[in-house]
Amino acid sequence: MYQILSVAVLVLSCLALGTLGEEVCGPLERIKVQHQWVSVYGADHDRLKVSTLVWKDFFEHHPEERARFERVNSDNIFSGDFRAHMVRVFAGFDLLIGVLNEEEIFKSAMIHYTKMHNDLGVTTEIIKEFGKSIARVLPEFMDGKPDITAWRPCFNLIAAGVSE
Ligand code: HEM
């Protein structure tokens, strides 16, 4: 009886604190994401292959989004223009992941990307969809299993954007 009461008190406390089952991108999650990202995008793998597979997956799931990238020749994701675009996007992503645990730098980089995407009419929802493509492709290149409970809240932080 005493044990049941203790568990009940613990569960109620967690609920009151709002921590039960809630995913956070805390210091530990940030380190996990950084570590796993390095195993995907570090020197050992073909960065172009990773990014091409992510964009291929994204356009397969959202064919209507191809038009948004007409300027960079999205009809042919193997073209020089689109490759350069992919390199820019993943360089940005790499930077954001790299500074996840440096609050001020992360914030100023995020303000820049958020403003740019807002001006282009890019919503949080569609960036989350892009995150799903990343999540489908990453395991193929990652050492070990992706820690989804760390990736999801940290990616959502990026997708949500930061305004000045
Ligand atoms: C976390 C994911 C993303 C990151 C880090 C990111 C970052 C970037 C970067 C660095 C550029 C290049 C800016 C420049 O030319 O200087 C860019 C361009 C752009 N991004 Fe994103 N992006 C992301 C996801 C998305 C998504 C999901 C969409 C919309 C579906 C999007 C729409 C665009 C558009 C339309 C451009 C301009 C393309 C052009 O040059 O014509 N981005 N993004």
From TrEMBL:
<keyword id="KW-0408">Iron</keyword>
<dbReference type="Pfam" id="PF00042">
    <property type="entry name" value="Globin"/>
</dbReference>
<keyword id="KW-0349">Heme</keyword>
<feature type="binding site" description="proximal binding residue">
    <location>
        <position position="117"/>
    </location>
    <ligand>
        <name>heme b</name>
    </ligand>
</feature>
<dbReference type="InterPro" id="IPR044399">
    <property type="entry name" value="Mb-like_M"/>
</dbReference>
<dbReference type="GO" id="GO:0005833">
    <property type="term" value="C:hemoglobin complex"/>
</dbReference>
<comment type="similarity">
    <text>Belongs to the globin family.</text>
</comment>
<feature type="domain" description="Globin">
    <location>
        <begin position="24"/>
        <end position="164"/>
    </location>
</feature>
<dbReference type="GO" id="GO:0005344">
    <property type="term" value="F:oxygen carrier activity"/>
</dbReference>
<keyword id="KW-0732">Signal</keyword>
<dbReference type="GO" id="GO:0019825">
    <property type="term" value="F:oxygen binding"/>
</dbReference>
<dbReference type="InterPro" id="IPR014610">
    <property type="entry name" value="Haemoglobin_extracell"/>
</dbReference>
<dbReference type="InterPro" id="IPR009050">
    <property type="entry name" value="Globin-like_sf"/>
</dbReference>
<protein>
    <recommendedName>
        <fullName>Extracellular globin</fullName>
    </recommendedName>
</protein>
<dbReference type="InterPro" id="IPR012292">
    <property type="entry name" value="Globin/Proto"/>
</dbReference>
<dbReference type="InterPro" id="IPR000971">
    <property type="entry name" value="Globin"/>
</dbReference>
<dbReference type="GO" id="GO:0005506">
    <property type="term" value="F:iron ion binding"/>
</dbReference>
<dbReference type="GO" id="GO:0020037">
    <property type="term" value="F:heme binding"/>
</dbReference>
<dbReference type="GO" id="GO:0005576">
    <property type="term" value="C:extracellular region"/>
</dbReference>
<feature type="disulfide bond">
    <location>
        <begin position="25"/>
        <end position="154"/>
    </location>
</feature>
<keyword id="KW-0479">Metal-binding</keyword>
<keyword id="KW-0813">Transport</keyword>
<feature type="signal peptide">
    <location>
        <begin position="1"/>
        <end position="21"/>
    </location>
</feature>
<keyword id="KW-0561">Oxygen transport</keyword>
<keyword id="KW-1015">Disulfide bond</keyword>
